[in-house]
Predict the structure of FAD-binding oxidoreductase.
Amino acid sequence: MIDSVLIDELKSLVEPGKVLLDADSLNAYGKDWTKQFAPAPSAIVFPKTIGEVQAIVRWANERRVALVPSGGRTGLSAAAVAANGEVVVAFDYMSQILAFNEFDRTAVCQPGVVTAQLQQFAEEKGLYYPVDFASAGSSQIGGNIGTNAGGIKVIRYGMTRNWVAGLKVVTGTGELLELNKDLIKNATGYDLRQLFIGAEGTLGFVVEATMRLDRAPQNLTAMVLGAAELDAIMPVLHAFQSRIDLTAFEFFSDKALAKVMARGDVPAPFESECPYYALLEFEASTEEVANAALETFEHCVEQGWVLDGVMSQSEQQLQNLWKLREYISETISHFTPYKNDISVTVSQVPPFLKEIDALVAEHYPDFEIVWFGHIGDGNLHLNILKPAEMDTAEFFGKCATVNKWVFEIVARYNGSISAEHGVGMTKRDYLGYSRSDAEIAYMKAIKAVFDPNGIMNPGKIFV
Amino acid sequence: MIDSVLIDELKSLVEPGKVLLDADSLNAYGKDWTKQFAPAPSAIVFPKTIGEVQAIVRWANERRVALVPSGGRTGLSAAAVAANGEVVVAFDYMSQILAFNEFDRTAVCQPGVVTAQLQQFAEEKGLYYPVDFASAGSSQIGGNIGTNAGGIKVIRYGMTRNWVAGLKVVTGTGELLELNKDLIKNATGYDLRQLFIGAEGTLGFVVEATMRLDRAPQNLTAMVLGAAELDAIMPVLHAFQSRIDLTAFEFFSDKALAKVMARGDVPAPFESECPYYALLEFEASTEEVANAALETFEHCVEQGWVLDGVMSQSEQQLQNLWKLREYISETISHFTPYKNDISVTVSQVPPFLKEIDALVAEHYPDFEIVWFGHIGDGNLHLNILKPAEMDTAEFFGKCATVNKWVFEIVARYNGSISAEHGVGMTKRDYLGYSRSDAEIAYMKAIKAVFDPNGIMNPGKIFV
């Protein structure tokens, strides 16, 4: 913990009342959605301007005080947890959309703009901000950039990275960099903007971002398909992608669906029971597109890949079909799940998933595995539910073993130990399963370039 | 120049006959399409494997021999010119497409794969490689990645960056890095792949790249529109983008069209003469899309933005309309043009262009300015034709003055001094107009991380 002299210095850098030290604030702002690490920050500071952020970082750099950036704190890797007496820099008072340009289709955002706020803003302008995920109502743009947030529309729109036109960052020495200046084409050396995206605040803090917006989608339409076996999912994806630009291609298993059905508040997609389900979405902008989708569906049934299916005919039906997928995470949270967010290339999903299934079944036959995820991107969310009668500590102890097996399989498939949740502290010790020693050494050397005294979110990604 | 002992060492690293020292080879492989710098390499080496590339780089690192990577040598910034006794590493014998995955829609390319070869390969697979530009028949994928090549389809498909799923690079110490392993989602620390894209070979050499392919476009259709004034181009772009996903939005002035018309081998788009023209392209995948385009055209005429227009009704007409734009560069090359490749945000194009026009007209009223470019991306190609009676040296002397004025205006508009041609040696001294001192210092520090002895394409981007 830092001493009262340092606290007084910190207070002098911001407006009165913008440094909080009470236990509730320290607890609330010191953690994200992960629970493994107890929050223990020294103070929470709320800058209101870029100049104040620079002053805080310059001070921290001089005093060797560790800083942790804090956005919506919805992260799942403990990248925004302050467990070691750090000062948390929270962007709650930098939450405005500062400018909009209809010809460039850009919105200039302060880091504390909530994702849903930008989505709503875009809608009001007749446009669309396409990065979307379960925590969009709380997560902030600065955090989205720090983790290169993905979500449910990546197959069409890509990650957050694709939507960052320009970035203002404050590096570990307090320097302000204005990166790329919102240009579409700019071939003037290394694109430093890309380094800060996904860096989890370890190279510097995002203090402003110009985000691109897109044309609003027309008549979004969803299909839920029931597949006879996992291997059928790939040719189904291929058949649809050959004819239609999909906006989503999600996946869930019968066990995931059963849990959502048990809630009693979502209608079943159709009567047949199938082991695997795909939810796909597209713009039915014309009748011809909708017909192409139906023809492709029929083709998939003829081939024996698909057993049953349904297509939304209204906005309400679209939303109901999405609930089948979106409610899974919340529904299974009551079963104390072990969760893992992993990816492989799309074509490798079936053998990869089966290998993990078989391994867990062999060693822990009483474990229930619930799979769901963004299969169109190769991103799977693995969830193992705690058997009701098993002690929580025993369960997570066994899951730690599973974790290692899973990462060994991930490494063998050239996959990623963190598809979209980042590394933070929860996956720091496993980074070597996805990145080589040489890569990690280069990453550390790059950190030293931008943060020579190691004050920017230290201990995240790597030690 | 390096001595014969070093040459013998170099020869021992590759197959017999794969080091060339004759004057013709040195001259041919020592330069790109720029002419300002006389080629003067010490030798040309042709590796056939990644291992040979590593051996060459390790040797060069130990012996402090500068290396220049060589692809199709179609660059326009002298990034692939060896003017100081360097060893040129040419990838002509690493030109195979090694693998294809239909579900992932990826092709694994050696660096010497020609852009058009990949385009053709994709077409044979029923897919599409969307990065396209005038030199696609000669340029190589390694060079495309080194310069983050753009071209005529960026408005829809983005730059080369968007299509690189995975990258194998050899750094300045000879280390092989396998970056991102072709994953769509991978949140495991800094995305080093992004650093190497657009780095012009100064951080390492691309030795393999997995490129993404896309669905083949359906019924590409072009419109050429004549506009009454420059300011009308922006609302026209906006009107079309609000309703249709454009695959291109190009621009040229009446002077550019006149030069192409004078060739006599391309039909005029329509009879009316207009000061500015836009060529837009889209997938007329259904009749409804084509109708939406026609309705938007009519709206633009009603608003007084557009004076005349034509829409292609066949593949032949599509190609004829594209010739109006594509032939410009070659046609004006006979007028000894001063050329510049610059960009601003899309909305800033009209005032930016007018300001440069006015400045040149004021100081050099006898200069003919020919504008064309990818206006949908804010990327303009400025061309000034040498007055027939003016001495070439005098002309380029005056253009050096123009250059400085142009870059000052670029800087004032927060634009880029190189939209898509890179920095190389031709724009090295002007980098400060687009990047801050702090950014340049960070870039140099990053280079030192990956290339501690400064052997990888030294003197390019910065000294």
